[in-house]
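Q: I'm writing up a methods section and want to include an example of the input and output format. Could you take the sequence below and give the corresponding predicted structure tokens, formatted cleanly so I can copy it straight into the document?
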Amino acid sequence: MQRRSVQHPLLGLCSPPSLPGVRYGAEQGQGALRAALASTFYPGMREADEIFVSDGSKCDISRLQLMFGAEASVAVQDPSYPAYVDTSVMIGMSGQHNGTGFDDIEYMVCTPENGFFPDLAKAKRTDIIFFCSPNNPTGAAATRAQLTELVAFARKNGSILIFDAAYALYITNPDCPKTIFEIPGADECCIETCSFSKYAGFTGVRLGWTVVPKALKYSDGSSVHTDWNRVMTTCFNGASNIVQAGGLACLQPEGLAEMNTLVTFYKENAEILRKTFSEMGFSVYGGADAPYVWVGFPGKPSWDVFTEILQKCNIVTTPGSGFGPGGEGFVRASAFGNRADIIEATERFRAAYGSK
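A: Here is the clean output for your methods example:
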């Protein structure tokens, strides 16, 4: 990808000295937390100064789009987390909505037929590729072979792959990497973003991180890491010190044990949902390495299914079409709830739908 410089036009900007007694923290994050993230999630793979602590992946996705600019072209999994497309549209990367999706965005279709992994031989070359594994909403986790193919595709095309690992802690399949940096060569083409939201319930207090390797360069050889540091120190004052202290506690032995216990609980919820829909005769995906279950209603618009479930069961699901054109005909069921509510929901589903 060609560089869109954010450094030189801003060299004239400066901040006045802080008032006596007034101190901001490091915009990149507290050193102890950055070191703990490196040793916990990227041992032997990434250095602490390649990890930038933030107020969450969603915010970092927007800042990454700001850094790359409107001239960059973008590809997304279809279906996928809406923020990838929405921020692309807002920054000016797309054309008009064409009734199903947006012009000038490459939708990489992920279906049950292709194992929810796109046919890269049919994908157009773009500057940016967004990829989430385990995927939201399908719950599909990419295998090592698939991610190796994806990294090779990005390197061949000079693309930057933005890898969303928000649900990586839910992976138990040993053939599915928990970070893109397990794949050789990823440090030369990949950025990874993650957060504590689905690991430790930090959705409201906000704490995440983005990993930008120093080996990642634009096509002119300039550093993406340098530009990202400039964006973060310009557009962000750093995550709350209190929240960072909480994040650091989560990475201590007791905190890690609690996070794993929480993840296990939600995975059990997902299995209850998956088993229920499967026994009722629905086509069901996900729920094994992710907290989401992807349920097929072939031939039915997903918003109609959402409305029907709401009216029959008083349960809110998420219409698949909200995740892209490829989500039509599906709804997403979430495992994020207490056990009693999950069981009550399954009982309502069975009462309303019985078996197909």
